[in-house]
Write a structure and sequence with these properties.
The complex is a heterodimer of chains A (about 750) and B (about 230). Chain A contains 26 helices and 28 strands. Chain A is an alpha+beta fold and about 750 residues long. In chain A, the strands form 5 sheets. A 7-stranded mixed sheet of chain A has the order 8-10-7-11-9-12-13. In chain A, strands 23-25-22-26-24-27-28 form a 7-stranded mixed sheet, with helices on both faces. Chain B has about 230 residues and is of the alpha/beta class. In chain B, about 25% of the residues lie in helices and about 25% in strands. In chain B, the strands form 2 sheets. In chain B, strands 2-1-3-4-11-10-9-6-7 form a 9-stranded mixed sheet, with helices on both faces. Chain B has a two-stranded antiparallel sheet with strand order 5-8. The longest helix of chain B is centred in the last third of the chain and has 14 residues. Chain B starts with a strand and ends with a helix. Chains A and B meet through helix 8 and helix 10 of A and helix 1 and strand 6 of B.
Chain lengths: ~750, ~230
């Protein structure tokens, strides 16, 4: 295949490139001629769902993206939020689902590498990572292998680069048997007036290629991530890239060093669709053209052609635009760090992309047409038929296990059990900023050289999204914010990763649309901007789609790091109370899944007014030092939240509470009603808390006391649960490690 | 007091050591780039944690050939004090400045968590600020920290008081259950015979900032400061 002798483009070649006949006609119309094979490859990658967001863009436009703190909203490598003191928080979440299912270790590792590059291309030093992971049923033959592979991939990459992985969330559900989710989040810190953008401006400025050499790995990774899986999925292993965290570390340090200079014009990571997407997008944002010499691109192997060079997704590569005349200074910095670097082209002013190979022009494309010319997809949406069937939940014929036994089994379910097995494999302390270690509602990091801290949380309950995609989106935002609130911080920005099935199916499109509407409404209501995000569609195998999973990561700001709060009970004798109401809700709960093996009924109802009132009250209680712990009441309900607070203080503590009945026992103990926060406090603070709650219109109930070595629950004075705290703790703490370490 | 921190490509705890030595302990701290070949008049030198050269081949195996290691060996042979933390410890054993090897953890997994150590010998420049038998709480963070050596060397290490730290429980008892990585004889840190070179897998710089309640790591650095004051 030589690109210079134009091979005829047949309908088969078009189809192999994942382009529809209509899309090909559109290319012919835009160019006024047939593309050559290299050009077709570029269109294929750039117009893939993964790069073009063609199905999702109209809906994403509805999200609130502005606010007084926003420095950079969606559309760049990452979002940027002002946190005062001349500093900015730079963050984004991104999926690496498809590659991680095919090759869990490298798939997850390169996901972490990619999201870090998105953050440091903005001029920020990455200070924290989170990972939101979804695996199939624990008994599925691939689940353990995928869990261990993904966790090791994240650990090997993040640990080596020296960015702490401080939190995340993990769910196990059969809906992910054929499509796991790996969503990686990175937070960085930058000077607010030194943010770098992906723009190739200034005629004559140099295009600098930096980082690893280009190899044949990952060609058409973007296209792979834009199709469903079938029986040939295993054969797609070669489209997964291989990560080199050592080069990433050098690249990180070199980039931050070069960015101290004023002659850096723009920079972008070569992520999905590699050199093509980075150079096209940078030129398009500046309204400029590009002239590229492919022979200058550092290559890993001999004989690579233009097609492969343009579409390789080799990792750890960046494209810089440097002011003309400063090339030598730039080269010297990268050479100091032993990185491959080369001037590969120049910025031109005519909006045309020209690439030469052996002196012959192999690409001549109008840049705007490639970047923005994809056919708009107004995909039809239809409410899924399954929703009618499961709207009503009839509990009359259900057998209910003994509550103490139920609690033990819930604490031992992999979704609810401690994630210590996972986070102990991650370096979560490096850089000395981690004030609250993994295992509380939110991770808290100090902002170096200030008295401030940032709190981070990532969340999404896919079962709620399945029962009601709108509620799923809404609750994901509310809960991630609630986690951040419980740590004492105020949410200042959201980034989202929208994981769904095949958008060509109208029912999936409806789920997508509703979830985006729900999360947008909730962000607007709580007044938190969405500053970055990512969409991952086609998470579907042989027609089986994942549950809608709109993962939300929230960054919160704490003005005084001494006002931080954690979820664990601190002291014997403290009073336990709850903000919010427990309703008779079991739809979509872990209890329902575990004991009745079903996911049906209604998702928990979220009342935005109540949620906001609670999210305003809790930080006030923390600021006034009235409470010693705050814990979001979520999966597994009140009983599990209580147990977690017992386990996660300075040492495990027991408790004794009495609940008021009135609703089904299992709903009272294990139902997942929203807008509830479990708190503990010294008795002396009771009256103050009561009066503040009353003023805020937030229901507040005293439940009992932190005491003894038992987990004792009464309902209307009758003992319902009385278990040894050590026994419960052991189940909760060790279940996941026993699962992960088992030799199948 | 002047000290240096060696920066290898892939070092990633260098900034943390710098922060503790400079901002918390107030020393005059200098970066030493791995391509440098001279060590000036430092009171002590730190080889920090991280993944020098990506830990490719084997942790420390490539770093030992770095130009700076010639100078480190020369500096140590003249009595200069060298502290290797985690990857720094791995580099010190690979370069022959300390006996033994560091193998994959017993469970073949990376471990990041707080552990407790017993001080076995406080008559060294690295432990003089500790009480004999004192239990320190310091985090570990490694995939290859399982110390191993032959019987004869182990006997010699024990006989000479070269084992400075052993993993133990909060009461100071060493058992397999509290040995996080399967290290031989629960060893967490050793020094050379001349007692001027020490390597330890736990990270004292991670528990030395008064922002956290635990500052046991300060004792290692304070020992170095005290002993430097008395000898200079």
């Amino acid at each position: 295949m030589t690109a210079s002798t134009p091979a005829p483009i047949t309908p088969e070649i078009v189809a192999e490139h994942g382009l529809s006949p209509e899309e090909y006609a559109r290319i012919q119309e835009l160019l006024g001629r047939d593309p050559n094979l290299v050009e077709l490859g570029i269109f294929s990658a750039m117009w893939s769902e993964h790069c073009s967001y063609k199905s999702s863009r109209p809906h994403l436009k509805t999200l609130p993206t502005e606010g007084p703190r926003v420095i950079q909203g969606p559309g760049e490598n990452a979002g940027v939020v002002d946190i005062g003191d001349g500093l900015a928080a730079v963050f984004k979440i991104e999926s690496h689902n498809h590659p991680s299912f095919i090759e869990p270790h490298q798939g997850a590792a390169t996901g972490v590498g990619g999201i870090m590059r998105d953050v440091f291309t903005m001029g920020a030093r990455p200070i924290a990572l989170l990972d939101s992971l979804r695996f199939g049923h624990p008994d599925h033959p691939k689940t353990r292998y995928l869990l261990n592979g993904v966790v090791k991939g994240i650990a090997d990459y993040g640990n080596c680069v020296g960015v702490p992985t401080v939190g995340g969330d993990i769910y196990f559900d059969a809906c992910y048997n054929g499509n796991i989710l790996v969503n990686a989040f990175c937070l960085g810190l930058a000077k607010a007036d030194r943010i770098f953008l992906g723009k190739a401006s200034g005629v004559g400025n140099a295009l600098l290629y930096v980082g690893s050499k280009t190899g044949r790995d990952g060609i058409h990774g973007a296209s792979m991530a834009s199709a469903e899986f079938d029986d040939s999925t295993e054969e797609k292993r070669p489209t997964v890239q291989v990560g080199d965290p050592f080069t990433e570390k050098l690249l990180l340090e070199a980039c931050l060093e070069i960015m101290k200079h004023d002659w850096v014009v723009g920079v972008q990571d070569m992520g999905a669709a590699g050199l093509s997407s980075s150079s096209f997008e940078m030129a398009e944002r500046a309204g400029m053209g590009i002239e590229l010499d492919l022979d200058a691109v550092p290559r890993r192997e001999e004989g690579m052609n233009a097609y492969e060079i343009m579409l390789s997704e080799s990792q750890e590569r960046m494209l810089f635009v440097v002011l003309k005349g400063h090339e030598a200074e730039a080269l010297a910095i990268f050479e100091k760090w032993d990185l491959d670097v080369a001037v590969i082209g120049r910025v031109t002013d005519d909006g045309i992309y020209r690439a030469r190979e052996n002196g012959v022009e192999v690409v001549n494309l109008p840049i705007e047409a490639v970047v923005t010319g994809a056919l708009k997809c107004d995909r039809p949406a239809r409410k899924p038929a399954y929703l009618e069937k499961m709207a009503e939940l009839d509990l009359s014929a259900r057998e209910t296990p003994e509550p103490g036994e139920a609690l033990k089994q819930l604490l031992g379910s992999l979704t609810l059990a401690s994630k210590e097995y996972v986070y102990q494999q991650y370096d979560h302390m490096v850089r000395l900023n981690t004030l609250v270690l993994p295992g509380s509602d939110a991770a808290v990091l100090r902002v170096p050289e200030t008295n401030k801290a940032l709190a981070l949380s990532v969340d999404c309950n896919p079962r709620y999204g399945y029962l009601d995609p709108y509620a799923g989106g809404q609750i994901a935002v509310a809960e991630a914010c609630r986690n951040v609130i419980c740590s004492g911080a105020e949410p200042v920005g959201v980034t989202n990763c929208l994981n769904f099935g095949n958008p060509e199916n109208p029912e999936i499109m409806w789920q997508f649309q509703e979830a985006v509407r729900g999360l947008g409404d909730m962000c607007r209501f709580l007044d938190i901007p969405v500053v970055s995000g990512n969409v991952s569609l086609y998470n579907e195998t042989k027609g089986e789609a994942i549950y809608p999973t709109p993962t939300i990561a929230v960054v919160g700001l704490m003005e005084d790091l001494d006002r931080r709060c954690t979820q664990g009970f601190k002291e014997e004798g403290n009073t336990i109370g709850i903000l919010g109401n427990s309703l008779e809700e079991l739809g979509g709960s872990e209890y329902q899944k575990l004991f009745w093996n079903e996911c049906c009924g209604k998702a928990p109802r979220l009342d935005p007014e109540t949620e906001r009132a609670i999210q305003r009250l809790c930080p006030e209680l923390i600021r006034k030092k009235l409470i010693h712990s705050a814990h979001d009441c979520s999966e597994g309900g009140l009983a599990v939240a209580l147990a977690e607070s017992c386990f996660t203080g300075p040492r495990p503590l027991g408790m004794s509470i009495n609940l008021k009945g009135g609703i089904r026992t299992e709903a009272l103990l294990f139902g997942e009603s929203q807008s509830r926060i479990l708190i503990s406090f010294s008795e002396g603070s009771l009256l103050k808390i009561k009066s503040l709650a009353q003023q805020a219109g937030v229901p507040f109930t005293v439940l009992g006391r932190v005491m003894g070595r038992k987990f004792q629950v009464k309902i209307d004075g009758n003992e319902i649960i009385n278990e040894d705290i050590a026994v419960l703790h052991d189940i909760w703490q060790h279940t996941l490690s026993r699962y992960g370490n088992r030799v199948a | 007091m002047k000290c240096g921190i060696v920066v290898f490509p892939g070092s990633n705890c260098d900034h943390d050591c710098y922060h503790i030595l400079k901002h918390v302990l107030g020393l005059d701290v200098h970066w030493i780039w791995h391509k440098d070949e001279v060590l000036n008049t430092f009171d002590f030198v730190v080889l920090p944690g991280g993944f020098s050269y990506g830990d490719y081949l084997r942790p420390g195996a490539i770093a030992r050939f770095s130009p700076i290691m010639k100078s480190v060996i020369h500096y140590a042979s003249g009595g200069g004090r060298v502290l290797g933390i985690c990857n720094g410890f791995q580099i010190l054993v690979e370069s022959g400045l300390l006996p033994g090897v560091l193998m994959d953890n017993r469970d073949q997994k990376f471990i990041c968590k707080n552990v407790t150590l017993r001080v076995e010998n406080n008559d060294t420049p690295f432990t003089s600020a500790c009480q004999p038998g004192e239990v320190l709480s310091i985090p570990i963070n490694h995939g290859q920290g399982r110390y191993f050596t032959d019987d004869e060397t182990l006997k010699r290490l024990n006989g000479n008081g070269q084992v400075l730290f052993r993993y133990c429980d909060a009461e100071g008892h060493s058992t397999e259950a509290v040995n996080p990585n399967g290290s031989l004889d629960h060893i967490a840190g050793v020094c050379n015979e001349a007692r001027n070179v020490m390597g330890m897998m736990p990270h004292p710089e991670r528990c030395a900032d008064p922002l956290w309640p635990e500052v046991d790591g300060q004792k290692i650095f304070q020992s170095l400061i005290q002993s430097s004051l008395t000898t200079s």
